[in-house]
Amino acid sequence: xxxxxxxxxxxxxxxxxxxxxxxxxxxxxxxxxxxxxxxxxxxxxxxxxxxxxxxxxxxxxxxxxxxxxxxxxxxxxxxxxxxxxxxxxxxxxxxxxxxx
Length: 100
Description:
By secondary structure, this protein is of the alpha+beta class. It contains three helices and four strands.
């Protein structure tokens, strides 16, 4: 992946990387975002727990919210001021979780 000197992915690289991250889109902030919908609150909360474990292991934590059966996630490397390879890697791992 091509990064700027700060580690932030350039626009072309981010566009290409998102092709490998179904459902994730570029948002202002800058960040990448995705909304996940589940049948119940318990399923949504279980998913959040799985994401929390992935994020903690990676040392890279999402901005997110939960409303009943919906989990909205935004990934950005705040210390770098944009989307980095770490964000793309975490998005791929999240997409690989059961129910995602």
